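tl;dr need the bound structure. longer version: we got a ligand (S-adenosylmethionine) that a collaborator sent over and nobodys looked at where it sits. i said id run it. heres the input, straight from their email, havent touched it
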Amino acid sequence: MTPPRHPFDALAAHYWWLETVTFGPLLQRCRTAHLPRLAGCRRALVVGDGDGRFLAELLRANPAVAADSLDISPGMLAAARRRVRGLPGAGRARFVVGDVRTVALPAAAYDLVVTNFVLDCFPADQLAGVVTRLAAAAAPDSLWLEGDFAVPAGRWRGQAARLALAGMYAAFRSAARISAAELVDVGPLIAVHGFAPAAEMTWLGGFLRSRLWTRSTQRMSPVSMGRLPLGTASGGGGRRG
Ligand SMILES: C[S@@+](CC[C@H](N)C(=O)[O-])C[C@H]1O[C@@H](n2cnc3c(N)ncnc32)[C@H](O)[C@@H]1O
């Protein structure tokens, strides 16, 4: 039986070139900037990965990780499946069509949760519930990789970011029928569940941000975190915000 179509399906074939035209390589840099720090992860939940660009790089970089890729759009997941097909790690990926707001997730099962450019799809009144569900699926010792847009500090940068975000939200509300209308910082919602910031990289003066969070029963050493200093790090090829 053909799964029902989702508004994001229509974007699946165009997603990569739309992104390339608007942001060049920067979104992919943002998604993958912390990959060296994920070498110890064994079971990942990749939420709303779209056409699979992060998933493919995770499988390449970490030969021991198994990943569940969860997305509400069958079209996006089909594109992701095509992308990883033929990779040596393809057999370690499982594709699940589902809504992160309602799909059954195993408890405390994943040592890595990834939310790149997906939590911005949810309005504030849904976001806490989504984050709570994902935190419950994350193991007591786990990492959470979260990449998204952000509103940088500073009057002009902040205003420019808000203007750009207003345009992007208008476009995605129309094309993908997302219900969110503004960006919410998910940091405090993630922190509530015992995750602490471990590393952060920014691009475009802080408009793009990748944050790695850690929830650990033991303090992580800089070595286990991949040698980069905890706290902040400048983006690979990117600029500090
Ligand atoms: C803006 S795209 C981002 C895709 C990708 N993560 C990236 O880095 O570009 C949002 C993705 O989240 C998925 N998505 C939106 N709402 C979702 C939901 N409720 N549950 C699961 N996936 C969802 C969409 O299908 C789409 O693939």
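gonna send this back to them w/ a short note. The radius of gyration is 17 Å.
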